[in-house]
């Protein structure tokens, strides 16, 4: 199991790698899909970054970082 802080740094960076690869802007107008991002993580061999301890769940935390990176806080 990885450290949460290390996973957060990696996932936040990978959000932008994924966004560039699929052509999604880092702006509120875009509506990126966390489930598509998660599928991409698995396909690229990065799913180990979703394996950390969390008070709620690792997926929940990762989705929150994803939302923050893509400026989607208005959605929740």
Question: Would you give an account of this structure?
Answer:
This protein is mainly α and 76 residues long. The chain has one domain. It is built from three helices and no strands. The radius of gyration is 12 Å and the shape is globular.
- Uncertain parts: none
**Total of DSSP H or I helical runs spanning 4+ residues:** 3
User: What structural class is derived from the secondary structure elements?
Assistant: mainly alpha
Determine Rg (CA atoms, Å): 12 Å
**Average pLDDT reading:** 89
Ends distance: 29 Å
Q: How many structural domains?
A: 1
Biggest sheet, in brief? none
Overall helicity: 55-70%
Number-wise, the strands total 0
Q: Give the overall form.
A: globular
Q: Indicate the proportion of strand residues.
A: under 5%
Q: What letter string, H or E per element, gives the SSE order?
A: HHH
Please tag this protein with its features.
single chain; 76 residues; mainly alpha
Can you summarize this structure?
It contains three helices and no strands. The chain is mainly α and 76 residues long.
List the helices and strands and how they pair.
Elements: H1 4-22, H2 34-44, H3 58-69
């Amino acid at each position: 199991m990885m450290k949460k802080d290390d996973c957060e740094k990696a996932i936040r960076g990978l959000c932008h790698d994924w966004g560039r690869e699929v052509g999604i802007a880092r702006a509120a107008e875009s509506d990126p899909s966390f489930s598509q991002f998660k599928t991409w993580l698995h396909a690229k061999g990065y799913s180990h970054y979703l394996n950390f301890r969390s008070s709620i769940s690792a997926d929940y935390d990762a989705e929150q970082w994803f939302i923050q990176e893509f400026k989607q806080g208005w959605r929740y």
